[in-house]
Amino acid sequence: MKKIINTKNAPAPIGPYNQAVLTGNTLYTSGQIALNPSTGELVKSSIEEETKQVLENMKAVLTEAGMTFENVVKTSIFVKNMNDFSKINTIYGKYFNADTAPARETVEVGNLPLFVNVEISMIAIK
């Protein structure tokens, strides 16, 4: 059985999907981009600020599901430009304990929704 997870503290889906789905003890999140949930505007002042907004959006989804970044077992990071990797990684590292950080892949892509520079999805387990 699946439970749909949505929160007003993260951007509303812009298509036929939900922010996350909880099945059993496993949470599968949709990718988050740097939309500010309060204003609906993209945060693109810098790759660092964009990444921070993505992770704050993800934090809101995890919180709604009763989880934290400590519950995350896998992340997928999609970037428009791999040259931004070190800056993204620095911000990402502030949200995870290095000793218990999840498995991860980072993939450079041709484009992302709304032409953002980074999108992140996660799998978490209670």
Protein described:
This protein has a single domain, classed as RutC-like (60s Ribosomal Protein L30, Chain: A), CATH 3.30.1330.40. Helix content is 21%, strand content 27%. The chain has helices at residues 47-64, 85-93; strands spanning 2-5, 20-23, 26-29, 72-79, 103-108, 118-125. The protein has a six-stranded mixed β-sheet, covered by helices on one side. Helix 1 runs parallel beside helix 2. The relative contact order is 0.23. The model has no long low-confidence stretch (mean pLDDT 97).
Briefly, what is this?
By secondary structure, the chain is of the alpha+beta class.
> Which fold does the CATH topology refer to?
60s Ribosomal Protein L30, Chain: A
* C-alpha end-to-end distance: 16 Å
- Which residue ranges are poorly predicted, with pLDDT under 50 across at least 5 consecutive positions? none
Order of helices and strands: EEEHEHEE
Number of strands: 6
Tell me the count of domains: 1
Strand percent estimate: 25-35%
Overall geometric form: globular
Organism: Lutibacter profundi
GO molecular function, one term: deaminase activity
Protein name: Reactive intermediate/imine deaminase
Family: Belongs to the RutC family.
